[in-house]
Amino acid sequence: MAQALFLDPEEIGFDGHGLGLYQGGPRCFYVPVKSRAALAGSKVIEPHWSEMIGKLGVEMAYLFTRGGDNPKTAFRSRMYAPTVGIPEDPATGGATAILAAHLLGAENLGPGTHKYELEQGYEMGRPSDLHLEIDVAGEAISAVRVAGSAVRVSQGTIVIR
Q1: CA 88 to chain centre
Q2: pTM
Q3: pLDDT digits (tens, 9 = 90+) for 114-154
Q4: Buried b (16+ CB within 10 A) or exposed e, 124-153
Q5: Is there a domain that residue 107 lies in?
Q6: Nearest in space to 148 (alpha carbons), one of 68, 93, 99, 76
Q7: Which domain holds residue 50?
């Protein structure tokens, strides 16, 4: 896995955050990395990538670390899914929403609403700021909300006859 993402094995994991495999639509592999430098230096390396996703049965890998450019940012992330046509996604709402399942255990979330600011797409020159809210009731997630802004990069019309 470290070879597939051009990481040193020692750069993986931090503060109780370990590797995770979650599904909420497509299956996604969550990879916590220790530093922004490691996150910035990550990239997909073949044939290791194809071997990893084949073994795990996933389409994408979501890498994240603590902090960001904005002092309020909790996590900075990158999402790779090149084998399904997405070399890197600048803003992945679905993967951000599913991150809630990982945070529930890794951050030991108690009852109430937990709010996180996230940065994604900065390393690829398409910065996106995402907002994640997680409602926890008892020991389970009761609701997840993701918000952010988008910039139109294209538009079109499809005519169906």
Answers
A1: 11
A2: 0.90
A3: 999 999 999 999 999 999 999 999 999 999 999 997 666 77
A4: eeeebbbebebbbeeeebeebebeeeeeee
A5: yes
A6: 93
A7: 9-148
